[in-house]
């Protein structure tokens, strides 16, 4: 009888925690819709009110999470014998509770309002190529994030604390090790490519392509990949992104009439994010079991669909006829030519979101090194443009002529998102590992893609990644899905094999 009473008490305690967590989640999701609105449709003059709205929601969420009642519920459940799923919820809530109870509410509100106000400042500075106009805002954000990190863990490297906001279970040392390995091995591969005599068809998508028709084609691509329009939508934004929940996961892209391929790959990338979100279990909405497992895993999904599906010859054998229907000018382009154009390695690219699959990671390394030095106090904000340009010249052999195409090109720092950039490369590495595991089980996935069939791949991802939410930590999820520890081996093997063949590199 006593055991039954204990069990009932524990269940009631857990249900109380779950209700509280669901309220916190709903506040956050409401803020997410407001941020989507700010990026996509909000009038330009709406920022002052929107900043206060987001600050208020941030304050409400912070108060709910850091309340004494939340701590008491967590303590009771940590002392109880709960099942694995409930233990995972308690673990995730505890992690957030510990971080946020260490940070004063006034700082939380100031960060929220500052980042909301920073967006239009960054946007105008980029449009006017005026870093000095953004510098004071960036300086304030750096100071606030240092202060935030100091409150969370005064004994830890502040950049490691900020990195853990986006990837809490792969430590910074792992990130640094992977990024250094990518830098060292990809630089050699890219140099070999630059010396290659291979004559790829790089102009397959040259020309002018009407933006409205591009949007129709991007909708075709989303249809081909199985996007659920009843739970999503496609819009445009200056910096493409995806946001939402398993009931409403939205995709944004952008259109450049001289860059058809860019809109297609951007849309497929954001589809990967939205598809992951839509694959989270409905029944766990509002709890960590119904939330994505942080940004390394999230980025693995976008990069998997963009690169391991959308840049394959098999995809273009299927999708090129669809593209020709929208744009008859592509009538003479072959799937092989489309494949080569989609995978060319640029020797003069300055823009991360326009980078090829290989040099992309050097773009990430540059941002990682700069923001790490900023947070450490080893680089002054006023020196960011010169540091940025020097690193581009050193790693990529090109030097930006303007800050708009240099250190002002990304939105992330205006959001205060220091520590975010490494997850792009960490996710690409994981994408290759997951894709290899899927092929081990399913066979040659290209055969399905060539026929426009992606249901098997998506089902594998649903079962092995999406459905778990945050039940597992990142390393545990990787082992559950692939049977191995997280490793860069598969990505580097994939990159060397693919580009060695494309560029006729004997040593690869």
Automatic annotation (TrEMBL):
Gene3D superfamilies: 1.10.1370.30. Its cofactor is Zn(2+). One of its GO terms (molecular function) is metallocarboxypeptidase activity. It catalyses: Release of a C-terminal amino acid with broad specificity, except for -Pro. CDD domains: M32_Taq (cd06460). The active site is at 270 (proton donor/acceptor). Zn(2+) binds at residues 269, 273, 299. Keywords: Carboxypeptidase, Coiled coil, Hydrolase, Metal-binding, Metalloprotease, Protease, Zinc. Pfam families: Peptidase_M32 (PF02074). Binds 1 zinc ion per subunit. InterPro entries: Peptidase_M32_Taq (IPR001333). GO terms for biological process: proteolysis. Its EC number is 3.4.17.19. Residues 172-199 form a coiled coil. Broad specificity carboxypetidase that releases amino acids sequentially from the C-terminus, including neutral, aromatic, polar and basic residues. Belongs to the peptidase M32 family. This is Metal-dependent carboxypeptidase. It comes from Natribaculum luteum.
């Amino acid at each position: 009888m006593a055991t039954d009473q204990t069990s009932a008490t524990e269940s009631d305690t857990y249900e109380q925690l779950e209700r509280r967590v669901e309220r916190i989640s709903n506040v956050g999701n409401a803020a997410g819709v407001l941020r989507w609105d700010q990026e996509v449709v909000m009038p330009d003059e709406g920022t002052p009110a929107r900043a206060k709205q987001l600050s208020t929601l941030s304050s409400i969420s912070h108060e709910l999470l850091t309340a004494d009642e939340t701590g008491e519920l967590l303590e009771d459940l940590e002392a109880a014998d709960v099942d694995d799923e409930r233990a995972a919820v308690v673990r995730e809530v505890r992690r957030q509770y510990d971080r946020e109870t260490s940070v004063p509410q006034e700082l939380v509100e100031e960060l929220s309002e500052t980042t909301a106000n920073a967006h239009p400042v960054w946007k105008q500075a980029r449009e006017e190529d005026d870093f000095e106009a953004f510098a004071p805002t960036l300086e304030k954000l750096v100071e606030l994030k240092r202060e935030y990190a100091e409150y969370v863990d005064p004994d830890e490297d502040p950049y490691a604390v900020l990195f853990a906001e986006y990837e809490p279970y792969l430590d910074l040392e792992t990130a640094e090790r992977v990024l250094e390995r990518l830098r060292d091995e990809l630089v050699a591969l890219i140099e070999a490519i630059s010396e290659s005599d291979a004559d790829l068809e790089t102009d397959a998508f040259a020309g002018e392509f009407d933006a409205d028709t591009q949007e129709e084609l991007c909708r075709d691509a989303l249809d081909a990949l199985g996007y659920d329009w009843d739970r999503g939508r496609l819009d445009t934004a200056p910096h493409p992104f995806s946001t939402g929940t398993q009931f409403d996961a939205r995709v944004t892209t952008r259109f450049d009439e001289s860059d058809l391929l860019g809109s297609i790959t951007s849309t497929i990338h954001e589809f990967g994010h939205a598809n992951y979100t839509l694959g989270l279990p409905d029944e766990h909405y509002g709890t960590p079991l119904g939330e994505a497992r942080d940004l390394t895993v999230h980025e693995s999904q976008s990069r998997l669909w963009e690169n391991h599906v959308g840049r394959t010859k098999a995809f273009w054998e299927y999708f090129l006829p669809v593209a020709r229907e929208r744009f008859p000018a592509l009538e003479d382009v072959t799937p092989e030519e489309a494949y080569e154009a989609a995978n060319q390695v640029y020797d003069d690219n300055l823009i991360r979101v326009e980078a090829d699959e290989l040099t992309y990671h050097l773009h990430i390394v540059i941002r990682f090194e700069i923001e790490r030095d900023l947070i450490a106090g080893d680089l002054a904000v006023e020196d960011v443009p010169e540091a940025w340009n020097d690193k581009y010249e050193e790693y990529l052999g090109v030097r930006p002529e303007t800050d708009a195409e240099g250190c002002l090109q990304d939105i992330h720092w205006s959001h205060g998102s220091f520590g975010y950039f490494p997850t792009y490369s960490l996710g690409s590495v994981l994408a290759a590992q997951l894709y290899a595991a899927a092929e081990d089980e399913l066979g040659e996935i290209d055969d399905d893609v060539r026929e426009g069939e992606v249901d098997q791949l998506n089902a594998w991802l649903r079962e092995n990644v999406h459905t778990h939410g945050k039940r597992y930590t990142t390393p545990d999820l990787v082992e559950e899905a692939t049977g191995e520890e997280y490793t860069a081996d598969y990505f580097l093997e994939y990159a060397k094999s693919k580009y060695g063949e494309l560029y006729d590199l004997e040593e690869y």
